[in-house]
Amino acid sequence: MTVFGYPIETIYLILLVASGVLTLLYLFFGDIFDGADEVIPFLNPVLILAFITFFSAGGFILEKATSLNSYMIIVIAAFISLLLDVLLNVFVLVPMKSAEQSLSYTEKSLEGRVGKIIVSIPTEGFGEVVIESYSGMISKPAASYESTNIAEGAEVLVIEVKNGVLYVVPYQPSFK
């Protein structure tokens, strides 16, 4: 079969090379298209490039390895590509998007969190607070926001963070 005067195998190879190059470019410059799948979820560039790659590779392999009709090969390659794309989306991309929470934190994100005093805080000095997070325990120096003593073992609320020091007040939960 010929398309635009070229054998179908050549078209498959051109598509394969083009999708490979576009995949590499997306790998390096993909942050530009980060919001594209938020606007139109089914136009995820990763899925489109994967479909073209699977389709062209499958079509080329089937053309070379079988004696099936080219139209049948196009249908089979499209079906296999769609199936692989769905599997890629369900088992790789969706879990990665769900697990996108970073293990790192910013000091600003600690404001409003509840922690526990592990080294008591004197009136005009520093102690230490430990806060549970996704990645484990965060231990930071702390000072009293209201210049009061806070005993070891007390729960505290982080009011603000300045220069790496948590300014805290004793925490009294509203509901217990």
Structure overview:
The chain has about 180 residues and is α+β, with helices and mostly antiparallel strands. It has 2 domains: about 1-100, no CATH class; about 110-170, Nucleic acid-binding proteins (OB fold (Dihydrolipoamide Acetyltransferase, E2P)). The protein is about 45% helix and about 25% strand. It has helices spanning about 10-30, 35-40, 45-65, 70-100; strands spanning about 1-5, 5, 115-120, 125-135, 135-145, 155-160, 165-170. The strands form 2 sheets. It has a 5-stranded mixed barrel with strand order 3-4-5-7-6. It is rod-shaped. The mean pLDDT is about 85.
Key terms:
176 residues; single chain; OB fold (Dihydrolipoamide Acetyltransferase, E2P); five-stranded mixed beta barrel; two-stranded antiparallel ribbon; alpha+beta; rod-shaped; 2 domains; 23% strand; 7 strands
The gist of it:
The chain is of the alpha+beta class and 176 residues long. 43% of the residues lie in helices and 23% in strands.
Major sheet size, sense and barrel closure? 5 strands, mixed, barrel
Overall structural class, as computed from helix and strand content, comes to: alpha+beta
Query: What does the radius of gyration come to?
Result: 28 Å
One letter per element, helices H and strands E, the order comes to: EEHHHHEEEEE
- Strand tally is 7
Task: Please describe the topology of this protein.
Blueprint: E1 2-3, E2 6-7, H1 8-29, H2 36-39, H3 45-65, H4 70-98, E3 114-119, E4 127-133, E5 136-144, E6 155-162, E7 165-170
Parallel strand pairs: 5-7
Antiparallel strand pairs: 1-2, 3-4, 3-6, 4-5, 6-7
Helix pairs in contact: 1-3, 3-4
